[in-house]
Amino acid sequence: MTNGRVLRHHVPEDWRRGLAVVAHPDDLEFGASSAIARWTAQGKTVVDLLVTRGEAGIESMPPERTAAVRSAEQVAAAGIVGVDEVEFLAHPDGTVEYGIALRRDVARAIRRHRPDVIISLNFRECFNNGALNHADHRAVGAALIDAARDAANRWVFPELLDEGLQPWSGVRCAMFSSSPEAEHFVDITAHLDRGVESLAAHEMYLGNLAGGFDPEQFLRRQAADAGRRAGVPLAVAFEVVPL
Fold this sequence. Notes:
Blueprint: E1 9-10, E2 17-22, H1 33-41, E3 45-50, H2 63-80, E4 85-88, H3 100-113, E5 117-121, H4 135-152, H5 159-162, E6 173-177, E7 184-187, H6 192-200, H7 203-207, H8 215-230, E8 235-242
Parallel strand pairs: 1-7, 2-3, 2-5, 3-4, 5-6
Antiparallel strand pairs: 6-8, 7-8
Helix pairs in contact: 1-6, 2-6, 3-4, 6-8
């Protein structure tokens, strides 16, 4: 099942700095990384912010080892699409909670990096194929939207002022890949190969998925479907939330 919604609008690209905020290593690579490859090729700067280290993601490995492996895979995957800076907040994988602590951590990152846009993964209850979304994704998406507002208000989290972090009101929008509410798209026809290579960098994680997994087949099918709905060969679909 795929979402039949027509993608009517191109994602705005008149920005310079993006902050990609997701719950787990691989969240960006399953959705937005081909678009990030396009944007860094344009000279834009994107920083990755991972809320967890994905330590609960491989059943056959203890969490401490999994965290180290998946963090390293994320850094490698980011570099393939032109992202040189990757940060981890170390919230607990699988039990991320929407709340003050998460909002504060994301607001802190927004004030430090001062992005024009935020890039993330679907936070709706289901994905665009009807599959139930992960609780961590839902919590992170809601928190980052509120954190963008928090980052702009000097009287919310005044302790950030004590850290030398001045308010930042320059976040224009948040863009969520794989959302059933997507109406925007990015043409990735020239950039899908880098997206595939980036997802394949999560070698240990993908190798432990039941039944095997083909990054090329998965991303190409997804990109072709979005491209059909956007009127281009290959695309990534985004829900764009103005902020």
